[in-house]
C-alpha cells in the first residue's frame, strides 16, 4: 500500500503512459467501475482519489478516447458531468426512467401513447391495462418496445386528466369479459366524465381565475366595479 | 363562525333588503357574536329605538334569534335575566336563494302554493289564517313551512347546565350533550318539539284569533310595519296563536337531493339519476337532518315501485335498476340498498376545486392536484413528477406555486445519509383548503352582486326611458344591460349552488 502511494506521488510528477502500476487513469477507471450503473460525478472522483482537477480531466479524456467509459446525463442535475463504465447502462435514478431520453422527458412519445390508448379504450368501452397492452402488441400499433407497466402509467395519468375513469369490474353488462374486481378503464357513459375536466361555477367567472382576488375589495383600487376582467367578460360587442 | 367574506356578503344582502341601519346592527352581531341589546347600542352608536326596530325586523325575517339567559350580578347584585340576540348567518344567506325555493314549490305544488310561500318569505312569518288554509296545509305536508321557534327561550348559564337539562326533559338532554356553544343550545331550546313542528290544528280558532288575523292581514299589506303588532299589541293575545315560517331546512335538503341527482346524471347516466331520485323521494319523510351521510336503506321492491312512478322510470327494467344501483356503488345489506350521499357531495366539492386549479394554474397543475387529492397522503416531488409526466424541475416549480397560494401543504424531510439530503413532500389539506375556497366563493358572490348593482346604477337613465323611445345607441345600451344582468345573475345562481355544496350540504 505504501509502495503504491509512493509510486503514485512519483508518477504525478513524471507520468509514464505505459506504466502498469496504479496510474490516475487506472485508479479512476476502478472507481468508476465500482459505481456500476449509478456512475459518478467528476467532483466526487476528485475527492475520492485525491487527484487534482487537470489530472482527472486528462485521465477521463484518455479513458473516453479508449471507449472504456462514457459520459451520461444525470436527470437530478443536468449540469454535472457524470461518468460511467462503458459496459453499464445508466440506472433509472440517472435517466429518470423509461420516459426519459437523454435526460429529457419524451413528451412526443407520451402523447402518441396517450392518443393510442384513448382510441383503444374508446373502441372497447372498457379495458384493463393488460388488454390495452395486448391490443397494442397484436396490432403492432407501437413500434418501440414497451411494457404493461408503462401502459398502466399512461392510463393512470389519463385518469388524472379526467379523460378516462378507473372502475372495478362488476362482471355485469359491459364488464362480462373481465373478472369481477379487476381494475379497468373506461370512457364515461355520462355527459360530464371522460370528456376532460368540467368547468365549475367558480372557474367560469373572472373571480375564479383572478390572481388578485386577495387584494380585491368593494371600494378599493381593485374592485368589482372597476375590474378589467369583468369589463372584458361583460363586453359583448354590442 | 362565518368566514370573512361570508360576513361581508351577508351584510351586503341585509343592507340591500332592509337598508343600512338594519345592516349595521346585523354586522355588529355577525362580527362580535351574540350580544344583549345594550351592547349593540353601544357598539353601533345608533340610538336605542333604531336598534330595537332593526332587531325586530331581523327577528321577523328569521335573521336573528333572541334568547334569555341568567347572568351573574356584578358587585354582589342579584343575578338577572338578560335577553341576548344572535345573528343566524345561514338564514341571511338563504335570502338570496328565495327564487330557488319558490321555483321548487311552484314545480311541485303549483302556483297557489308558490304565492303563499312568497308571502311567507316576504313577511318572514305569519299565522295560518293569513294564508289560504287548503294550500297552506299542502305546503305543510311537504314540510316547506314549519312553526316559528320560541321568541325568547330561557337558557340557564353554563355552570347550571345539570339543572337546566333536567328541566327540559330527557330527550333534549341528549341533544344538549352534543351541543357546545350557548348559541347552539339556544337554537335547540327555541325550536318547537319535533311532534309539534309540522302539526296543524284547525279547531283552535276563536273569535279572538279571527279578529287578530284580520289585523294581521291589514298590517301585512303595509309590509314591515307588522313587527309592531308582533311586539306590542300582540303579546297578550298571541300566546296561543301559532306563527309559521318557511322551513329553510327542507329547502336545503331538497336542493341537496337535486345536486346529488344532477351529479349522478353527469357522472354516470340518466338511469343512475332516475334511481337515485326515486330512492331519495321514497325516503324523504324519514330523513331527520340535512347532512345525512347515506340514504335510508330501502328494499329493491320499494325502490322499483318508486322508480315506476316517474315517467322516465317506467321504461326501466329490474335489471336496469340493478345496474344503476351498482353504478351508484350502493351498499347492500340484508337486501336493502343505501347510497353514500356524502361521497357524492365530496366528489362535487373536489370537482369544483379542481376546476379552479385548472383555470388558475394550468393542466399540469390540475393533474398534480388531482393526484395528491386522490392519494390523500404525502407524496414526494419525484414521485409526483413520474406519475404526472412532467419534468422534475417544472414539477417543483408548479408545486411551489400551488403551495404559495395555500392549495398544498408541504413538509421538508432532511436525510443525513446519501447525496440528496432534502426531500419535499406534498399533500392536499382538504379541511383548510375547503374553508379558503368557500371564503373566496363568498367573495366572488359579493362581487357579482356589487357589479350587477353598479351596472344598473350606471345605466339608470336607460331604465327610466320608455321602451318605444329606445332607438339607435340607446337600444344597444339597453340590450347590453339586459345581457349583463342575465350573465351576472345566472352566474350568481350557479355560484350559489357551489357555495351550498361546500357550506350547507
TrEMBL record, chain A:
Family matches, as Pfam families: RNA_pol_Rpc34 (PF05158)
Q: Report the Gene3D superfamilies cross-referenced here.
A: Winged helix-like DNA-binding domain superfamily/Winged helix DNA-binding domain
* InterPro entries, per the entry: RNA_pol_Rpc34 (IPR007832), RNA_pol_Rpc34-like (IPR016049), WH-like_DNA-bd_sf (IPR036388), WH_DNA-bd_sf (IPR036390)
Question: What's an example Gene Ontology biological process for this entry?
Answer: transcription by RNA polymerase III
GO CC, alphabetical: cytoplasm; nucleoplasm; RNA polymerase III complex
Q: Where in the cell is it found?
A: Nucleus
What UniProt keywords apply to this chain's record, in alphabetical order? Answer: DNA-directed RNA polymerase, Nucleus, Transcription
Q: Zinc-finger among the record's keywords? A: no
Keyword field contains Transcription: yes
The family classification in the record reads:
Belongs to the eukaryotic RPC34/RPC39 RNA polymerase subunit family.
Name of the featured protein: DNA-directed RNA polymerase III subunit RPC6
- Highest lineage ranks of the organism? Eukaryota, Viridiplantae, Streptophyta, Embryophyta, Tracheophyta
TrEMBL record, chain B:
Single biological process term from Gene Ontology: DNA-templated transcription
Where does it live in the cell?
Nucleus
Q: Which organism is it from?
A: Actinidia rufa
Domain annotation RNA polymerase III Rpc82 C -terminal: ranges: 134-316
What is the name of the protein in this document? DNA-directed RNA polymerase III subunit RPC3
Main location as per UniProt:
nucleus
Q: Name one Pfam family in it.
A: RNA_pol_Rpc82
For this chain, the family text in UniProt reads: Belongs to the eukaryotic RPC3/POLR3C RNA polymerase subunit family.
GO cellular component terms attached to this protein's record = RNA polymerase III complex
**Superkingdom, natural source:** Eukaryota
Subunit structure and binding partners: Component of the RNA polymerase III (Pol III) complex consisting of 17 subunits.
